[in-house]
Amino acid sequence: MSVLFIVLILAPLTSQAISLRGANYLFTTDILEILDSDFQLEFEYVLNSNWSFTMRAGYYRHLEDSEAVYANNKRHWEIGARYRFYPIDTPPNLLFLGIGFDNRPQDNTITPTAEIGFQVPLRPIVFSVVGFGGFEWHFKNAPANRWVTGVELRAGICF
After folding, report:
1. Nearest to 64 by CA among 8, 121, 143, 3
2. What average pLDDT does the structure give for the chain?
3. Residues 42, 56 contacting (CB under 8 angstroms)
4. 99-139 pLDDT, tens per residue?
5. CA–CA separation, 84 vs 92, rounded Å?
6. How many domains does the chain have?
7. Cα 7 from Cα 119, distance rounded (Å)
8. pLDDT tens digit string along 5-29?
């Protein structure tokens, strides 16, 4: 009887406790940017068993991938989007590869980006580390185009 109890009751609870539970919606922000007085909110939506779609909006004092600040310490908006592919597990668990863009309309820039990251959703909290790289294109009245790279340390909620 005790063997039956262990197999039917305790074994499923144990395996469920150690596996990562999925989430359909995630809201995160970059902790490193907050420490730098920049703000960003990202929303991620799980599309299917391998893909998710991410939208982000930010309000920045600093130029992208730079310590330089905007003139008169003014802030500029940024919007962006990503598609993320999860090759190991279902979204939003573990390793992901992403492609997308960032756009700062006031700077007349668009930055196609690629990213690689690792995400752990511990419902209701989620943590992730993301490395990204992209090429910032300037369209009008701006300095030369340039490569941008960086690391994001994100935290937020998921459900």
Report:
1. 143
2. 87
3. yes
4. 999 999 998 899 999 999 999 999 899 999 999 999 999 98
5. 9
6. 1
7. 31
8. 444 454 444 444 444 667 899 999 9
Q: What backbone torsions phi and psi does residue 79 show, to the nearest 5 degrees?
A: -125, 155
Q: Which amino acid is at 57?
A: A
Would you state the pLDDT for residue 147?
94
We report the CATH number of the domain holding residue 53 as: 2.40.160
Tokens of 144: 């030369």
Place of tokens 């970059």: 30
The answer to whether residue 4 scores a pLDDT higher than 70 is no
Distance CA 103, CA 138 (A): 10
The whole-angstrom separation of Cα 110 and Cα 120 is 29
Between the two ends of the chain, the Cα-to-Cα distance in Å is 38
Residue 149 CB-density burial (10 A; 0-12 exposed, 13-18 middle, 19+ buried): exposed
Parent domain of 135: 2-158
